[in-house]
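Quick entry, no commentary yet.
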Amino acid sequence: MKSGTRLVLLTVPGVILLAAIYVWPMYGLGRMSFNETGPTGAMIPALSSKTWRELFADPFIFELTWNSIQLSVVSSTAALIFAYPLALFLFRTQSRWRGVIAALAIAPMLVNGVVRIFGWLAILGDRGLVNAALQGIGLTSQPVRLVYNWTGVTIGLTESLMPYMILALVAGFGRLDRSLEEAAASLGAPPWRRFLRVTLPLSLPAVALGWLLCFVLAMSAYITPKLLGGGRVFVLATEIYELSITSVNWPLASALALYTLVLLLLFLAAYSAMSRRQA
């Protein structure tokens, strides 16, 4: 058997599995989005573009799009800022505690998302730890509103994205070469200049990959905006849930889900094009 034929046969099970898990459900969503909703709310099998016209005619959809993109950009950037120093430390340290620190860094991934959100509600609430500390040291006389708004959602989403950012950065730091930093130090460059001129440029591919991964996760996040937002934060994921569960408008929910998927694919395509251009 030729090596090319053997390679094709080896990929067949994976292709079938991917088709069953991803392609078929996407086809179901696409087909459902062309159905119509009757006056009673019942779904009527059809082949109509009415749902899509309704989707793009509603200005609220574009507001949801902007909200989702803005939240994803801010939370992904914040996760990058907080995760970068820790990831760089984990990559460079030779301490015997490296494994313990790495385990603690990704420990939030082992905790259910709903449990983490209720923990943030207890910490950021009006009578939570943060407000108690602020009032205790006299910085505020009234509780600062940190939950059921965009601030709380951003904090909770940033925390949930940090383990993924750390893993992506540590995996992508393989291009860092300590000899280049040592050469810069031997030429008299201070630590901050070595970081800006050597370390940071070499780590930019890892930064871009980690940021994009967290951006995609943030765009599809539902639990954090729903619970920490308290029904006051509206993004694409929460609207899809409301349309499918509360309003039971499955055609419109399917169309909005596909619309969100296309947005993510466009961002991935833009990243791929930029990567090829810089290569």
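second:
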Amino acid sequence: MSKLWNVAVVGATGAVGAQMIECLEERSFPVGKIKYLASARSAGEILEFRGKPVVVEELTHDSFEGIDIALFSAGGDRSREFCPSAARAGAVCIDNSSAWRMDPDVPLVVPEVNPLAIAGYTKKGIIANPNCSTIQLVVALKPLHDYAAIKRIVVSTYQAVSGTGKKAIEELHGQIRSMLQGLPADCTVYPHRIAFNCLPQIDSFLENGYTGEEMKMVNETRKILETEIGVTATAVRVPVFYGHSESVNIETVKKITVDKARELLKSAPGVELVDDPATRAYPMPIDAAGQDLTFVGRIREDESIVNGLNLWVVADNIRKGAATNAVQIAEILIEKYLK
């Protein structure tokens, strides 16, 4: 019998926490004991794991005794506060927030792109999950970068409201219902109405005019690909429930033809090529929702420069962009590093 591992899900009652639980079940992760942790407000709620009830407990610094792996999705402040406690108790933390991503002693990992970086978890007992938009971007670009060395990336994102959490999903639902009934739409999660609208702001604006979300993509892409590649990003929130889309333009050192790009992507791990203009086949959020793959299409040469390529990249931001990526990291961790 294979070894079983004790797992804690921190933020179990949130959208990503719930998806982490589902992924553990779907992927038959060898869980021995499971613990659901959340705020005091959610303590006492009853969830399930593999058909059995599990009571949600309040997250405290003493919550991690006997835990091998702690999957965190409870926000940056709680990750900064509680990950060190979990690590001291002997758990390896896989954190979905931005708290540890740029820490030089914490590996930032996408299993299809830089799995060997997981070995660096021993420095702090923490592994960081990248931003959801960064994950799908680097999964799509890794095979192209390995072949032709990307010099510059220009990416515009079209991000679903689920990236903000349950309250944003509920707000979009509510606004749509209200507007279809001719009623005013309440705005509490976003600064403006999201229903039937696009908001060119995700996260707060910084002094350089970019938002925090945009700079996450810049800095995280460079860290994961281990290069000072040129990256510029524009992040937009759109009235879609699940699935982030990205318009990506790259400039490479070596030319990549459309046919070569399709060949590279067709065999790339974690990628599903959907690129047949003749039949109007291209990636869409409605097809990516509920899937773990990164979908790539609309591949065409950028005729304004010598070695340029355009792509359209779509993935489920809650699954591959968060929960699935974390569980994939945990799978490699127990296979290659933990005893």
